[in-house]
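Supplementary Note 3. Input sequence used for the single-chain structure prediction.
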Amino acid sequence: MPPVAQLLVILLIFVLFWFVLMRPARNQQRRMQDLQRGLEVGDEVVLSSGIFGTIRSLDDGRVLLEVAPGTELTVARQAVVRHAEELAEPEPEADPETPDESDAAPEGPEQAEGQPRNQAGDQAGDQERD
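The predicted structure, written as discrete structure tokens, is reproduced below.
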């Protein structure tokens, strides 16, 4: 194989590597920076740890987040990874033909509430009665 062809193969591999790995990562990083720059007081957001809250104040690198009435957390601005409405999914409609769990018959033998279940099964109780 001529040296020029080898060089072209190496360049092709580099270009493929760029489009497959580097470009999507750079686009994701750009979207994250745009999100964090566009934060405003009152936005409902999600932190990288999964905590939901409402922004109460913003500083250069900090966000004061209300996670429950009267409960506020101060977090790094970089901890905010998305707006909460991005995670909202419409609830699926209930299928009228599918019975609810409350309508389903209980599995296994009936057990009185509050009584311990015999771990060895019903056979141990039968042996004691014999």
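The domain at 40-88 is CATH 2.30.30.100 (SH3 type barrels.). The first helix runs from residue 3 to 37.
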